[in-house]
Structure formats: C-alpha cells, structure tokens
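BUG: 3D viewer hangs when loading the predicted structure for this chain

Environment: internal workstation, default settings.
Expected: structure renders.
Actual: progress bar stalls at 90%.

Input used:
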Amino acid sequence: MSLSPNAAQRAGSRIAPSSQPNPAAKVHAIPVRRIAGVPIENTHPSLITDGVAAEDQQLAVNRPFWVFFVLNIGIAPWLSGVIVAGMGLNLFQAAVVIVIGSLIGAALPATTALLGPQSGLPQIEVGRFAFGRVGNRLPAALNWIGAIGWDVIFNSLSAAAVVSLLGRYGAAAPLWLVFAGLVALQLFVGIWGHHLVQSAARATGVVLGVVFLAIGVLAVSKNGLPAVNGPAAGSPAVYAALLLVVSFSLTLAPYASDYTRYLPRATPSRQVFASVFGGLFIASALFFGFGYATAALIADPTPIGVMSALAGLAGPLAPLVLIAVALSSAPCNAVNDNSAAYCLISAGVRISRPAATIVGAALGFVACLLATDSFVAFFENFLFLFAHGIAPWAAILVVHWWMAGARREETPEGIGLGAVVFVVVTAASVALFSANSIYTGIASKLVGGADVGPYFGFVAAAIAYAIGLEATRARAA
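Structure tokens produced before the viewer hung:
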C-alpha cells in the first residue's frame, strides 16, 4: 500500500486512511506564507483526507475555547433567548431550560472534538471510518449546506447592524452591498485557513465578549428580571425551548475536531473536552439568559428589532453596540466557510481548500439575499431540522470510536454500516418527531406537539450502530 506524505508521517500512530497513492501530495513542500506571523494552512485537499502530520500538531489546548466561545456569543443566541421568552416560559422554567440545554448542547461537540488530536482529521472526514468512503459523502454534503445556513444567520444579524449604524448618520447602502462587504471580510480569514481562524477567534472573542457582556449587564440592570413564579408554560413549549437551546450548540458538533486536530496527540482528553465545552457552555448560558431577560424590551424579535432595542438602551454608546454586532459575523462565518471547505472536499469535490472556501461563501451570499424576509422562521426551522441529522450522526461517530478498537481508523471503500443507520434513523426522526412550521410528525402530535426527534435519533442510532458493529465483528471472528 502506498502512502501520501501526510499519511506516512502518521503511520506510526494510526492506520493509513487511503489505499491509493496521492501523487499530488508533493504540494506539501511549498514554502509557508504568513500574515502577521500567522501561517496559511495547507491548501491541498490531501490535508483533509490524510490529516495533520504529527510534527504540525502544536496548538495550545486553550485555543479551541475561543473558537467555540465566539460562535456562541452575540445577537444570534441573544435573539434565541428572546424567542424562548416568546414561548411563554417563566423565569424558573427558562433558567432550567437554558442551563440544561447549554450543558447538553455543549457536551456533544466537546465529545466529538476528542477525535481531532487522535485522528488529525476534520470532524466530517472522521466519519468515513464508520460511514465508508462513499457513504460519508452524504453527511459531508448535508453539513456543507448547514454551514451555508449559518452564514445566513450570522450575516443577516450583522447586516442589520450595519444598516442601523449607517441610518444613524443619514447614510444608506443596498443590502446586497452590505452582505458583499461582510462576506469579503470573513472570506479572507477563511481562505487563509485554520491558523488565522484560531487567531481571529481569540482576538475578537475577548473584545466582543467584553462588549456584549457589558450590554447584557446594562440591559438586565435597567429592565430587571421577569417574575420567578410567573405563569408556567406547557410541556410542548418547554420541550421546544429546550430543543432550541440544545440545537444552537449541538449543530456545531460537525465542526468540533476541525479546531482540535492541531492539538498534540498526547493532549489529555479531559483538557480537550474542557476547552470546547467551556467555550460553548459559558457563551450559550450567558447570552440565552440575556436574551430571555431583555425580551420585554424587544417588541419585534427580528434582527432589526433586536438592533433597535439594544441601540436605544445603550444611548450614546449605541454606535459601539452596532459596530460590535456588525463585526461579530466575521469570526463566526470565517469558521463556517473554513469548515464548509473541509466538508466539500470530504463530499468528494477534490479542489483546493481556498477554492472550496470561495464556493461556499459565494453560495452563502446568495442565500443571504433570499432569506432575509423571514429570518426568525428560517432560524428556528434550520436549527430544529439540522439537529435531527446531527444527533444520530454524532452518536455513530462516538460509538464507532469507542467500540471499533484497533480497526476504528479503517475506511470501508463503499457505503459503511454507519451510513445506513444514519439515513434510516434520521428519516424516522424527521418523519415521526418533527414539530415546526414546515411539518409536524405523527409521534410529535401524540405528545402534544413536542419535538424530541434529536434525542430519539441519538439514542436509536447509538443502539442500532452498536448492535450492527458487534454483529459484524462476530461474523468476522
């Protein structure tokens, strides 16, 4: 068996992922370009398929914290907290839902992130061990589409801030131009790749975290908290709110090892878990909480409505608030576009990483123009439906890594067991348990309209794959 250079460098620690030589892998010898001391990530698709070489795994363990922290701060989770309040939960219910939902939502990406240092691969590419080389193309393509959905969410919020900021000074710009400027900024970071994404996340995470924290404290101090013992919402509303909170972080699971695979292989698992979990949980709990607590100030739960309310609250500091919101999409969508490029390559499109980044950003730009008129409905449906697929996908990855033993890094050439389980369980989850403005499943109607599909999907996929994997091993024995 012939190995490409990256695979050969890692052969002492894991089974080579490809059975065919990679004649183009000599691209790895090109000089490393830098910006402000930050090297550009390798542009060749073999970096995705072969993984990071052991000598390049030098990332500090605290760095993933900032990537996942910056993804969960800002107006998107704040608006989500407003939506939770709109579901009718009282303060006690909301506090329980936000804390538990943030815990569950952060735990799964933190778990899948553990596979990064061990495999050296992006998260979606890790799936090929369970899904097969061909079977892995489906979740890769779906997550690529999901990354474009996140582009729409973050850019819609930032565009609203830019429009509001310009309006304060009597200026205006067409929305397409605002979107184009935002996409250009985040595209630059995404094209540079992993290392600049990490650096941008750390720098902006500190600044934006302080600004938004100050806004949140100011808002809560002026508005006060809702009544602890206010009228309680019914179970369907509580389940819907819980799924919303869980989904916000859960949908980042397919990105997790993208930003931990440069950690040294010997990094203790508890440190990897803590870094990712801490970034997600702290940001989610804080900003969902701020959104819920300030919901009374926001009569219109749309990007423009949130911008107007917070700008009015900040008074003379309103421009600072709007600038922070406008800039918040840059690190978030740099992460999205970078990870989308990995997914497109894993889906079988063998183009360079920068080219894949440009394709994803361009489609994200078009999607932004098409989705701005119904932001909240798009936001909720996107999170809920995406979670139905991510939960069983993540369950299969975790079970495979735990049970497959010495063969866990072997890649079936066709469609693996994981792909079959994923399709069947995801289809059942959506058909039976969906509860959104698009479709309500049969099982969801029987439980009062609650959407428990992702929980069902995770458990069902884990059990089905574990049984199937054990049966396969028994036949091979």
